[in-house]
Amino acid sequence: MADAANVAGTIVKNKPKIKAQKGLRYFVRKSIEQKELLLMSMPFLIWLFIFKYLPLSGWLMAFQDYKPARGFQESEFVGFDQFKFLFQDDRFLQVMRNTLAMSMINLVLGFVTAITLAILLNELRNVGFKRIVQTISYMPHFLSWVVVAGLVSSALSVDDGIINILLMNLGIIDEPIMFLGVGQYFWGLLGASEVWKSVGWNSIIYLAAITMIDQEQYEAAEIDGATRLQRIFYITLPGIKPVVVILMIMNIGYILESGFEAQYLLMNPMNMDYAENLDIFVLRYGLRQANFSLATAAGMFKTVISFIFLFAANKVAHKLGEARLF
Amino acid sequence: MFKKKALLALILSSLFIFLMACGGNDSDSSAGDDSGSSDDASSGETSNEPVTYHYFIGTAGDDINANETEIGKMLEDETGVNFQTEYLVGDLMEKIGVMVAGGQYPDVVVPDHAIEMMLDAQAFIPLNDLLEEHGQNILAMYSEYIDRFTMPDGNIYYLPLGPTINEHVPNPNIDQGAFWIQRGVLKDAGFPEINTLDEYLALIKDYADKNPEIDGARTVPFTGLTYDTSFFTFSNTPNHLAGFPNDGSVQIDMDTHEATVYADKDEAKAYLKALNELNAEGYLDQEMFVMNNDDFLAKISSGRVLGFFGYGWQWGTARQTLEEAGNPDREFMALPVVLEEGIKDQYLEPAAFTQNRGVGITVNAENPERIIQYWDKLIQEDMQRLVMWGEEGRHYTVNEEGRFYQTPEQVELVANQDERKNFGMTLFEWNWPRVNGTFSDGNAVEARRQPEVALETYDDDDREYLDAYGLSTFAELFSQPEDRPWYPAWSANIEQGSDVALFATRAEELQKRYYPQIVLANPDNFEAEWNKFVDEYRSLDGLETYENFFTETIKARLEGNWQYRN
Amino acid sequence: MQLINRLKGKRRSVDDLIFDTINVIFMILLVIVMLYPLLNTVAISLNASTDTVKGGIRLIPRVFTWYNYEHVFTEATIMRSAVTSVLRTVIGTGLGVMASAMVAYTISRPHFFLKKFVTIAFVLTMYMNAGLIPTYLLHRDLNLIGSFWVYILPTLIGVFNIIVIRSFIEGLPETLFESARMDGAGEFTQFFKIALPLSLPVIATVSLFVAVGQWNQWFDVFIYNSSIPELSTLQYELMKVLSNSNAAFGSGAGAASQFANAQGGVVDVVTPQSVRAAMTVVVSVPIIMVYPFLQKYFVKGLTIGGVKG
């Protein structure tokens, strides 16, 4: 401490150097002090560097007309051409609109439904019933999108689709609706399919979070005469809030990941104006044209947007006094 | 204490794995740099030592070892060579892309439409000398075609599949594009002769009026396949209606040999107009632009569809289901429908040669001459006969004139997928060097193209229809294909990512977006919708480049150069 | 305590009853909606494939047959790939969860001087993708191609899992760790004796995530090990069957079929929908069975107090 004050008070010019030295000394001292924690994390940091950071050198290809046959050394540099192709395409704005809309819908619906389901499951009294419901609710997660898309499409069929039959019998509609033929319905249908497929799966983590809530709190509330809803709002929800906030921050970073298979499989000429998202665009003009550079450029664009949203969300959470990611 | 040790063990073992993973000496990944000279093939002596090559095929299929099939076993006994085949599972571009980038290839690759990438990477070895030395039969079978797949540098890098030798035999049953109609509709109207689109649609409407329901379900008068990559089925139709075969998205003038797109031309407008009216009158399937392939097949199989345009190979499973359902009037018959009287239909394919697909040997293959030797045996007539026809007496019979045919039992045996697989028909009938056309004895190379076989497969119900129209085979209703020495235009060497390729993608997207709207528009708005499409289509970048590229390609092909590139 | 509960319960019984009834009805509806796809898939898998084409199969097979399952199980590769699937799931989950938990523990320690650095270093990678080819080249240089370890090492740690475990450990009372430190426990002891056992629900959850992720993975098989039948997995076998279907997505194979078929003259080889369904059932059931085993860790809440005592 005295040392630091001394340094600060004397030669200002040398400050950075000395500071660096101090930083190094601090680092070494801390490393020795916390050698166990270091030992626990170091191997995995090395792993992280090798497997996640090293290959990022491949981003170079976003500025090239990369040909696998020529490799990085011999592929032609084209500057920002790939980015220009992406951003200047007539359809780019529409594609971005669809991407954002679908990912927002998925984000909101995903959180609300999964948390609701977890809470309601937790309120079930019969443990056997609870287990059964839980196991069944997560089953659709294991069907691949190819299968699910087939089910969705036949459920929505005009002729004998179960949804139309149901709505007609309930008297909600007079004429069957061609759900997949109306672009405006697409986002909603997609969101609903996503919920159907993954709500059970997504609720698992909240169930786990609920188990970490101290049971004594419930008992105390019960003695105080709190109703079920009160217990949900004053104990359960606050109890899982840190987890919810952290997951939300992480998912906001995935703002441009709106899914691919579901859109691709449910897309048709009638709804493509609403279904085509960034990933499908990149498939068509990148991969299908053997243009790996365009795919990489799109990936970098996504990363930049992700970081902006991630840091912003983290900041906001911090400002609001909530748990934060880092 | 014990836990501590466990932890240390874990860390150590994970580090160990790293070292193991990183420390191993680099495998022979440098093979990609090897420019693959074929000099080493001149060793002359050929070994018979057992060897298994890895054979990658860029389309979907069932993996199998060649020697698990009868034909493959036979060839293994003779040559000692076996192949482990691997069919594509995910995306072709990704798979070939990492192969090329990493320089790690299977021994033999059928790259399908990613062939440019393989050639660009010089992943295939030149075959000229190998063929000269070990592949005389291959050279003989491909003789007329060799120039077509010799690259500008004078080398042969791959063998295309199915060159037509001797005579071209059109298929007696329709496996290509046609307007299909439920046979009962024809019977009901007294087997009328149908030539034009108007006649065809009028007949269907008439029947639909009389039969609003079939088997208790709503009748679907007309539908079609438009889903995803099957969209070309819909967008190709105008070209067929105008009297052209499937040349892709261009029309080749028979006199000037000029290539023009037709998506914005009168024939397209006329077809869309007809569908627009059909829709306004309530005869068009509402789900035509919404169904996926499974939905489409289900609809066709249900027996309540009266007509649709489609390629025969697209709905094989539905056809089978209809056959098994046991009501022959619900099966379909193909009609050569044209736009108006006076147009000669060209639905049947002329002799075709796809020069830009094929199979090549990669720089990673050791002793590539052994693969050539294997292929050289496979391409010989007697082996090709085994692949295409099977074993005499078992899978087919020969009559006194030396013509091959199948008895009813043999028809059934050959139709059995397990039998085809175990014998090796499924494996070798495509993706391996093979021929098409006729054998030297005049029999068709492919059994299904032999009229005698087709006749044998017709049952009494089929004959009722054949007789009513005075036909011996269903293809007789169609005009003979005219000679198109450039056919098919779609196999032009389009470089991926080039202006031509981008135009093709953009144009298709535009058609996908507009065609359904035009068809489903209120008839009063038809003109306006159509004009909007035409304006957008014609203002696409690269339209002219696209047409010129195909015109040049055709011109080059007529001069014998099939390797024209932009 | 029990008595009080019962008394209180009686007083609010009307409220509770309404809530419970609605909840149970809702859950039953949910079960119906969720069970439908699976039962439908099972029904299709037990239906003759030529009949399935007609569509309209819902919960009961129309033309019953075991053939589709026979077909699936006669594939010689099925058993072998099942072994690989199990191995990669077990090993991948064991190593992965251990590693994630350890990293999570370090960044949950408020005093760890690299806490922020490690956290950010890991989190950023969630949003960065090097792309297929650079990743492939790295794995080639590490000699991972054609090796079982390509299933384990590159995906060893899921950042998402780290964060989830961390937030649970952070939720544990710090006093537990403090008193352990007083007793002279090092970080390893605190990790193994306190952090791990107390976050069992989250460890179970993360294990499930990793196990399912490992089980469902097919892309790494496709890219790295597709030429080695011994290293194939069940999920990859399923993808083979699915990509043989009409609904094949995203793949150039679809785009090319126009040409292949036009030229091959071979009628579309389509794996019947029924075989696809049978394969889906065979591949999914084993992993679905894992859940009930892990379930006990998060159905009944663990109380901190209970563990302490």
TrEMBL record, chain A:
One of its GO terms (cellular component) is plasma membrane. Coiled coil: none annotated. Residues 96-313 form the ABC transmembrane type-1 domain. One of its GO terms (biological process) is transmembrane transport. The chain crosses the membrane at residues 100-121, 142-173, 232-256, 292-313. It is found in: Cell membrane. Keywords: Cell membrane, Membrane, Transmembrane, Transmembrane helix, Transport. It holds the Pfam family BPD_transp_1. It comes from the Bacteria. Belongs to the binding-protein-dependent transport system permease family. This is Sugar ABC transporter permease. It comes from Halolactibacillus alkaliphilus.
Automatic annotation (TrEMBL), chain B:
Residues 28-49 are annotated as: Disordered. It comes from the Bacteria. Keywords: Signal. Residues 28-44 have a biased composition (Low complexity). Residues 1-21 form the signal peptide. SUPFAM superfamilies: Periplasmic binding protein-like II. This is ABC transporter substrate-binding protein. The lineage of its organism: Bacteria, Bacillati, Bacillota, Bacilli, Bacillales.
Automatic annotation (TrEMBL), chain C:
It holds the Pfam family BPD_transp_1. The chain crosses the membrane at residues 21-39, 86-105, 117-136, 148-169, 190-212, 275-294. The keyword RNA-binding does not apply. It comes from the Bacteria. Residues 78-294 form the ABC transmembrane type-1 domain. CDD domains: TM_PBP2. Belongs to the binding-protein-dependent transport system permease family. This is Sugar ABC transporter permease.
